[in-house]
Amino acid sequence: MAESPFVIESTAVRAGKTVAVGFWETGDDSSPFMVARFNADGSPDSSFNATGVVTTKVGSCDDQAAGVVIQADGKIVVVGTSYFWGQGSQVTVLRYHADGTLDQDFGDGGIVGVKLGSGYDQGLGLVLQDDGSLVVVVESGSPGHQWGMLRLEEDGRLDESFDTPSLVALAS
């Protein structure tokens, strides 16, 4: 069996469709986010980008998905980390329509980037709330080593009523 360059980090299921997210291991520090959707029988869902797979490049080097939720309307929300040469990384949240195209009504062209500190920031997971907002679990490498949460409105804007970002230093 051939080894797949697709590294799966998280999955979600809704209405008989399974979505797997991760990254495409290119071997040259340019891995994009990868989203794949499958039918109930395990076959690639051809109604999702015709191939069942979408890749999205955000950072100047690797992008790595860490979590996924599927909204009731079929939109797919992915959280992860985008790395930039010489600039560290950012928390990245992407939202796709059910057909695999980026949702232009979310963030900037379907993408929200959040820089928490001056170094390495990571998106670790997310939860969809009943009102459509998203709570995102994050980790920031500077200053110090901190983790916490931020909340995004349904359109991708930071929710200012939430203590955003709320970060707590981890004890060593």
Task: Tell me what the structure shows.
This protein is mostly beta strands. The protein has one domain (6-169). The protein contains no helices and 12 strands. It is globular, with a radius of gyration of 16 Å.
In DSSP terms (H or I, runs of 4 or more residues), the helix count works out at 0
Number of strands: 12
Note the gap between the termini. 42 Å
Whole-number tally of structural domains: 1
Short description:
With 172 residues, this protein is an all-beta fold. The chain is built from no helices and twelve strands.
Key features of this structure:
172 residues; mainly beta; four-stranded antiparallel beta sheet
Task: Please specify the SSE layout and strand pairing.
Elements: E1 6-14, E2 17-24, E3 33-38, E4 53-56, E5 63-70, E6 76-84, E7 88-96, E8 111-114, E9 121-128, E10 134-140, E11 146-152, E12 166-169
Antiparallel strand pairs: 1-2, 2-3, 3-4, 5-6, 6-7, 7-8, 9-10, 10-11, 11-12
